[in-house]
Amino acid sequence: xxxxxxxxxxxxxxxxxxxxxxxxxxxxxxxxxxxxxxxxxxxxxxxxxxxxxxxxxxxxxxxxxxxxxxxxxxxxxxxxxxx
Length: 83
Hints:
With 83 residues, this protein is α+β, with helices and mostly antiparallel strands. The protein has helices spanning 20-30, 59-68, and strands at 3-8, 11-16, 41-42, 45-49, 54-57.
C-alpha cells in the first residue's frame, strides 16, 4: 500500500494504490483544489501517461536550451550512456 505525494509551492500531485479518494477528500476540505485531468507538464518536465504506465522527459527543455545558444543545427556526439 503506497501513497506518494509531490508538493512544490502551490502544485500538488499524488498517486498510489491506496487511500487516493480519502486523501483527495481531506485535501479538498482543507484547501481550494482544481482537478486538471491527466498531467502533461510538471515543473518543466513533460509527462505522457496511459492507463498502464508513465513516461517523463525534458526534451522540450533541451530543445529550448539548444535554441537559446544557437546550437539547433549542431550534430549529435556519441556518448557511453544508452539513449
